[in-house]
Amino acid sequence: MFKNVDKSMLLKLVALHVIVITVSNALVAIPVEILGVKLTWAAFTFPLVVIATDLTVRLLGKTIARQTIAAAYPLAITGSMAVFLAEGAPGSVAVRIGFASATAYAIGTMLDVYVFQYIREGFKNNWWLAPAVSTIAANIIDTYTFFAVAFNNSADEYMAANWMEIAGSQVVIKIAVGLLVFLPAYGILLNRLQKTYKLK
Fold first, then answer.
1. 32: left (phi over 0), alpha (psi -120 to 50) or beta
2. pTM of this prediction?
3. In Å, how far from its chain's centre is CA 111?
């Protein structure tokens, strides 16, 4: 199944997924208000996982991308729970947010795999189009799934009362960060990897 695949690259991509999810979960519990807009700091880190998914699909193919996501899923739950337990959250809260995070990640990135591949195959001459569209779609689905599961009617009164507003603001910021910061970085990294591994 992994024949002709650089396993070192695969492991690095899986590690990148898990690290970004874990760090984002540590930051999602920290609300911040910028120019009157309610956010959490995770808005500035999580878009990287969408780009990592697109890169996985581009370099390793859709099948292995799905396996990468499947492998990262239990690690994402474990890492997320560990972060919240370390921050002093009750076990029930850590489980809920860990499950919410991993589920949102799995749903958003699995859809991303199919959206990205479909657009990539249809518009082969425009390298930026597939990751741009998938960045928008995946971030919308991931963000609303996470906040609904994690904070709707939760014990955290602030987040329970404001999660819809925060999720909406978070989506806008995550898409902006993804398109303005990570998409150009994706293009540079893709070009370098294509030259290094002689990929098309």
1. beta
2. 0.75
3. 12
Whether 175 and 136 have beta carbons less than 8 Å apart is answered as yes
Alpha-carbon distance of 16 to 5, in angstroms, equals: 17
Task: Identify whether the C-beta of residue 57 lies closer than 8 Å to the C-beta of residue 116.
Answer: yes
Q: Are 125 and 132 in contact (CB under 8 A)?
A: no
What are φ and ψ of residue 40, in 5° steps? -125, 160
| Orientation of helix 129-151 relative to helix 47-60, angle to 10° | 130
pLDDT in tens, 132-187: 998 898 889 988 998 898 888 888 888 889 899 888 988 998 899 889 988 898 88
- pLDDT by residue (tens digit) across 14-60? 888 888 888 887 887 788 887 787 777 888 887 788 777 877 777 77
163 with 97: CB under 8 angstroms?
no
pLDDT at 1 over 50: no
